[in-house]
Fold this sequence. Notes:
heterodimer, A: alpha+beta, Thiol Ester Dehydrase, Chain A, 5-stranded antiparallel beta sheet, B: alpha+beta, 6-stranded antiparallel beta sheet, 3 helices, 35% strand, elongated, HadA-like (chain B), (3R)-hydroxyacyl-[acyl-carrier-protein] dehydratase activity (chain B), FAS1-like_DH_region (chain B)
Amino acid sequence: MTATIKYDEVEVGQQIEPAEYNVRRVDLVMYAGASGDYNPIHWNERFAKTVGLPDVIAHGMYTMAQGGRYVTDWAGDPGAVVDYGVRFSSMVVVPDDDQGATIRVSGVVEQKLDDNKVVVVLTAKSGDSRVLSKARAVVRLA
Amino acid sequence: MALNRDFVGRTYVSPSTYEVSRVKIREFAAAIGDPNPIYRDREAAKAAGHPDVIAPPTFPIVFTLTGAGEALSDPDLGLNYAMVVHGEQRFEYVRPIRAGDELVCASTITEIRSVGRNEMLTVRSDVTTVEGEAVCTTYNTIVERGGAA
Lengths: 142, 149
C-alpha cells in the first residue's frame, strides 16, 4: 500500500480540503444497478411518496461512497483505508431535475494511531442537513 | 409489528462464492462516480503496491447482503421492506478486496432493538477467501420505520 500522504507530515486537527459531489436521478439508477439495491424509494417518486418520503432519496450507500472517495482521494491509495463507518443521519433528497442534489464533504484528522494510521472524521451535508454522522475512517499513511 | 428476536444469533453462509471481477469493480466505481485508476488499470494498481485492481471501500455491499437477504425476507422475521432505510454501515479491512478474489460471506444477525418507534437490526458479515484468509468484516444496521409502533 502506498498512500501518498505521509504520516509524519500530518497533524491532529489538520483540515482536509472540502469537496462537493453531485447526485442526480441517473446516478441513483446506475448505483441501483451496480449495487443490486433496487428499493423503489431510490428511483420511483410515486412510491417514495406513498411510504411518507418527501421525494426520491439517494441510497445511503451512495452518500457513504462519496465520503469514501473523499478519503481515498486524500490518501492517494484506496487500499490505505482500513476501516470506514458511518451513521445515516438524514436523507439526501434528489429532485427530478438536471441539477439533482449536492453532497458537501469535509474532513479533519482527529487522531494519530500506531502503525502509521490516522483517524479522519468526516462531515457530509446536503443543503442544511447533516446526512452522515459518526463518519469516521482509519487510514494507513505512508 | 415488532421484529422476531428469535433471529438474533442466526448465521447465514452465502450459498455460492463471490468472484470479484475487474469488470464488476469498474462498473461499481463508475456507479459511484469515482474515476480513480487504481479501480480500473492494473498497472496503476501495481504501482500502488497491489497485485491487481482493488475495489472501493464500500464495494462489499454488493455481495454481503445476499446471505442476510434470505433472513430478512423470511416472513417469520416480520420485516416490512417498504419501510426500511439504512441506519449505519461499517467496513473493517484486513486487506483490500481485489480482482480475482473468490470470497465467502457468513452473515450473522447480531442485534435487534427498538429505538423510539423504529426497529433496528444489525448484521455482521465475515468475508474470507475460499482458502480461509480473512479479508474484511462489515456491519450493516437497517431501520424499519414505525416497526416498533
